Amino acid sequence: MNLHVKTLDPATLSFGQKQVQLPVVEGTENELGLDISRLRAATGMVTLDEGYVNTGSTRSAITFLDGEEGVLRYCGYPIEELCANCDFVEVSYLLIYGHLPTQQQLNEFQHSIRKHTLLHEDMRSFYSGFPRDAHPMAILASVVSAMSTFYQDSLDPTEPEQVDLCVRRLIAKLPTIAAYSHKKSVGQPFMYPLNELDYVENFLQMMFAVPSEGYEVDPDFVRALNLLLICHADHEQNCSTSTVRMVGSSNANLFASIAAGICALWGPLHGGANEAVVEMLNQIAADGGNVKKYVAMAKDKSQGFRLMGFGHRVYKNFDPRAKIIKTACDKLLAKRSIHDPLFDIAQELESVALNDEYFVERKLYPNVDFYSGVIYRAMGIPVQMFTVLFAMGRLPGWIAHWKEMHTSDGNRICRPRQIYTGPTQRPFVPINAR
Ligand code: ACO
User: Fold this and answer.
1) 362-383: per-residue pLDDT in tens?
2) Ligand 1 proximity of 368 Cβ (cutoff 6 Å)
3) What distance in angstroms lies between residue 38's CA and the mean position of ligand 1's atoms?
4) CA angle 186, 192, 195 (to 5 degrees)
């Protein structure tokens, strides 16, 4: 992958008597960055950027997004074209290996994923230890972390063959781990993977089949789920991906790094928002469907309430994934004649908010999570599993970034600095004098 950047005329930073020249770098889509890597050595100063709003933490050749124009491309290919032409496994290959696979490469990749879908039988006993009402994201993170105890022959981040085995195991087994966490919560027997099925079919089978009855996978659901997984597959340096890179930078193995990413994704300000959206829509429905009341609450800072599924750190125009997912949602509900009152509330909420000065001024648009929950509901996926599906989708992106970090020049442990604001030195006070 091309991680080189063009270097332009330097910028000059002055502070008191000191002056320092800072290189300006340019990426392939003409975005500019001030390279401050020598700033501390030259001036003794660090930068302060809480929430990393202005910080480019790395060079990366995986995903490009333009938040102003609503553009998202994986390895140069627009998300709309990938959604129209590929399934999730092909997109995973693209992200992880940096190019679209030939038919032969795709066959080999699919075959090896099918071969790794089973979990080590002893791992099933973990599930007996979790409480029935455990959140499936907690189970997912724990079981993925535990993979490093069962698959010790694929832990070394410096051995490409081990990494590749680890990658395939993760992609193959995550749907099995996820489906088992659902089966545990509903008290049904675990369904083993059926390797004649494709990736998404297999996941739906493990989620919804029971041993006592036949189960037919619904092709509409397969299409919709492929689309959702592709839309979630990567989003450059978001919170969970940065976490995976951060943990991986200490040379922690890939299972451990992905487990950390799953934990980061769980939060309601990140992947957990899809669950929070449906909870919010349910709350509005139970409260008589008064959308305007909730829009007013979101604008009133003293209420501490936000419209879930609205706003994005990067997209300040529209989220292209939300567009794709809303269209898919419309189609699926119409084709199957499903009338979901939550979809009506979601549409009304979107229209009220998009015409409201508060949201317009702050450029707050529906994000990827706003409509995904409505599709998941239509498939019968329980709310607690929504973020788990996000994790299944994001997995190839996390892997791609972890691999990119390990193979880049100048790869160093991630270790930010700080501006200390605590007490200056003071004498220790013995416990009986406090
Ligand atoms: N509802 C109401 N007001 C909002 C919302 C919202 N959903 N989002 C942002 N705002 C307001 C903030 O109060 C702030 O107002 P101010 O300028 O008057 O103080 C302004 O818009 C900017 O918001 P920030 O929090 O500074 O924006 P930031 O980039 O830090 O946060 C985030 C982005 C976390 C996504 C935020 O918009 C949010 O909390 N949204 C709801 C949760 C959500 O949907 N998360 C999913 C994100 S997508 C993903 O992870 C896949």
Assistant:
1) 989 888 888 888 889 889 999 9
2) yes
3) 33
4) 135
